[in-house]
Amino acid sequence: MCLTTNVTSECETASNSRSRQDRDNLIAISSRLRTGRALTLDVWSTFNAANFPPDCINLGQGYMNFSPPQWVKDAANDALMSVSANHYSHPRGRLRLRQAIKEFYDPTFHRSLDVDTEILVTSGANEGQYSVFAAFLEEGDEVIMFEPFFDQYLPGVTFNGGKPVFVPLHPPSGAKTHNSSEWKIDIAELRGAITEKTKMIILNTPHNPVGKVFSWDELNEIALVAEEYNLLVLSDEVYDCMVYDKKEHIRIANLPNMWDRTVTTLSAGKAFAATGWRVGWVIGPKALIDPTLAATTRIVFCTNSPLQEAVATGLEMASKHDFFENQLKEYEEKRNMFIETLDHIGVSYCLPEGSYFVMVDISRISMPDDYPFPATIQGRGRDFKACWFFAFEIGVSCIPVSEFYCEEHCAIGENYARFCFCKDIDTLRCAMDRLKKIANYLV
Question: Which of 95, 106, 96, 70 minimizes the C-alpha distance to 321?
Fold first, then answer.
């Protein structure tokens, strides 16, 4: 009797298990989730603070550990105390913010921007870019992406039916310290990547993670290609206020014939140390902004109202506080402190001319063959292992650069780890002290 009961129980358990598995797969997921790495464990989840020792210093994710300026936070509080700023905004963005964007950016776009047709407020630059993809990509349209690329571009393209085509930036040869300007696009490669299905080029300057600030000559080459093949250019310029060594940030939209085919995306999160506010904007001609508005209206309808008011105050008052001048000086000092430590260690790196990232050459790092890497790291590039090793043995986390490449080109990125220096000075000093231990693992 007991035997029969046990057998019956085991059969019921097996049947229930099969039934559960069957019911877990009742509804087929979209095929688009199987592209663009959407279902794979992303690098931000793998190299998350929750996976590391509690005292590990996070120089991996590119967010600040300090607040926006007080006068911007005060403006946010004032907006929360009002009535209108706690309700829906116009999908184009609050008029006050659009007017502030116009007045702030008119000089650098060399034109009088129209607040009703040429400026669109979005829920962060990322949503703005996604809306451009949604507005312009047809199934099978090809999108040129320069590598390394910000990882959100990939699913943004594939979710909207696009096909990414990768063209790598080439670093200088040899494991040596070099300038980010030495990472070059091969224009012949760019031209060779274009087909009758090519619709768009994604440009990122200042560049994440290289820190490259594209020169006029480089942008002009890209512009000539875009004009010749009638391509849309999505220009990600969220780090435009972080350009060092008196380099000039040039907007591709200002080049001959480029205004009519360029959408520029920008970010209050980067500009005002408010990455969690999710306020960005796109600038471009009416013919490109109107379709993007149609997409963003259906995706989010409108962006956070009170924080739009706060960002408007930020742009309106920035010159009074010399905010961007002082912020740039502070970031440049932090960058220089970081690279001085790398020079002291004797490790090579890419000196960034823009953004707040430094790519460190990890090709000379020696790690034990039997080091206990987790399953999520096994089978990944050498840079994944080095970054994990740093988090546990050095006490500083960073991001593997091969994640920003397609499989065909990922070997270029495996020699680098990305560190960010958008942290307060005390945190950076502590991190620099810890990083000196890297010298113990160099060969």
Answer: 70
- Euclidean distance between CA atoms 179 and 385, whole angstroms: 25
Token couple for 351: 């000196």
The strand pair at 349-351 and 396-397 is best described as: unpaired
> Which of 18-42 are b and which e, b meaning 16 or more Cβ less than 10 Å from the residue's Cβ?
eeeeeeeeeeeeeeeeebbbeeeee
How would you classify the pairing of strands 163-170 and 184-185? antiparallel
**Separation CA 59–CA 47 (nearest Å):** 10
Other beta carbons within 10 angstroms of residue 275's beta carbon come to: 17
- Length of the chain as a residue count: 443
Q: In degrees to the nearest 10, what's the CA dihedral of 98, 104, 107, 112?
A: 20
pLDDT digits (tens, 9 = 90+) for 395-440: 999 999 999 999 889 999 999 999 999 999 999 999 999 999 999 9
CA 374 to the chain's CA centroid: 26
Could you tell me whether strands 280-283 and 396-397 are parallel, antiparallel, or unpaired per DSSP bridges? unpaired
Q: From CA 347, how far away is CA 352, in angstroms rounded?
A: 15
* Residue in the structure block whose two tokens are 């391509």: 231
pTM for the whole structure? 0.92
Q: How many CB atoms lie within 10 A of CB 10?
A: 10
